[in-house]
């Protein structure tokens, strides 16, 4: 499904949004056939009249598109119009209010210390952590499996059976537990200190980690924040729940490390692109997690019922 953007009469960009949402805005009169729209794959912005078939608008609307689009700036005229009609690909050369929210790979967003800031709430942060937790869990399990298979393999060449009381066995146990923790610390530290200021989970949700003044955190602070994160989990998860009630939506580890979690467009020169709603990815992740928890609960209740009835021999 395509993600669309459109520019209103005040030259403000809106989006991304799916086909259905753009159709609904057209039906409500928020956009018309002369409104400029863009999606990934288009070389430049086009009047809505040019894409009525792709969006599945009615034939009657498509028939009236020709007259309405005549007054709109055409793609062929883009070179003769000022930079307001610049396409997303040319945004690096000439800034455009129509430019899609994309940056050149490796390009660091310009830091702006003022403007509106949308804090990332508890549910967005939870969804991001579920994604990160799944990724880290998979890599950790693979890492531990490789270590254990290697240890069993070397043991079979010697005594024939693994012995964790030997110096080698003790070292193996230490590695099995400490390497995943070290990997997690580096994962969070490096990603939070990168130009994106976000882990893969936070990128998917559209949020990032910053200092309380909006600046980027260092790798050291990012690693320290991870250990603060572990401390939050040791407080019966109260440290995490604090993000739902504190004024700036800070969890315990945010307070300890002087950090905030905000929308990815906060503290940039495009604060108007920030999203207050949960977003599609957040809703999908939370819904899947909720379904999984219900299934687990039902299985547990079923096992308890079977055990209580004495029918499980």
TrEMBL record:
Keywords: Cell membrane, Membrane, Transmembrane, Transmembrane helix. The chain crosses the membrane at residues 134-157, 169-193, 226-245, 283-308. It is found in: Cell membrane. GO terms for cellular component: plasma membrane. Signal peptide: none annotated. It is a multi-pass membrane protein. Gene3D superfamilies: 3.30.1490.40. Residues 4-51 form the GYF domain. This is Conserved hypothetical membrane protein. It comes from Xanthomonas translucens pv. translucens DSM 18974.
